[in-house]
């Protein structure tokens, strides 16, 4: 069996951040999409933001007032509060490339 070698330009690789990230994940209980979003986000944070992030998980069924203040349009929803600019990402966060771009870790 042959192993395929990939050569990536360093600019294409996600950069580990030195900034502090403040993240809020809005979920709807233990629905499959919410569980996937939480699992995917935790994995991503441990690889790319280890020790440099805070994550608040908000179940809109239990904390509707917070959800109302944030003017949510769809769930699950990840809001990157810091570093600015604030970004919002909807879905189960399974597209790692898209999430890294949304967090500003990849161009």
Chain-averaged pLDDT: 85
Helix and strand sequence:
EHEHEEH
Q: Taking Cα atoms only, what radius of gyration do you get, to the nearest Å?
A: 15 Å
The CATH superfamily appears as Glutaredoxin
Fold topology:
Blueprint: E1 21-27, H1 32-48, E2 53-59, H2 64-69, E3 77-82, E4 87-90, H3 96-102
Parallel strand pairs: 1-2
Antiparallel strand pairs: 1-3, 3-4
Fold and architecture overview:
InterPro entries: KaiB-like, KaiB_domain, Thioredoxin-like_sf. Residues 24-105 form the KaiB domain. With 107 residues, this protein is an alpha+beta fold. The chain has three helices and four strands, in the order E-H-E-H-E-E-H. The chain has helices spanning 32-48, 64-69, 96-102, and strands at residues 21-27, 53-59, 77-82, 87-90. The protein has a four-stranded mixed beta sheet with strand order 2-1-3-4. Mean pLDDT is 85; it is low at 1-14.
Brief summary of the model shown:
This protein has helices at residues 32-48, 64-69, 96-102, and strands spanning 21-27, 53-59, 77-82, 87-90.
What are the main properties of this structure?
4-stranded mixed beta sheet; Glutaredoxin; 107 residues; disordered N terminus; 3 helices; globular; KaiB_domain; alpha+beta; Circadian clock KaiB family protein
């Amino acid at each position: 069996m042959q192993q395929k070698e990939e050569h990536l330009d360093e600019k294409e690789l996600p950069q580990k951040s030195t900034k502090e990230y403040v993240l809020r994940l809005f979920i709807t209980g233990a629905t499959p999409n919410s569980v996937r979003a939480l699992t995917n986000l935790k994995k991503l944070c441990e690889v790319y933001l280890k020790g440099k992030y805070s994550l608040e998980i908000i179940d809109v069924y239990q904390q509707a007032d917070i959800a109302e203040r944030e003017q949510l349009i769809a769930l699950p929803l990840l809001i990157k509060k810091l570093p600015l600019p604030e970004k919002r990402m909807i879905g189960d966060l399974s597209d790692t490339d898209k999430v890294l771009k949304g967090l500003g870790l990849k161009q």
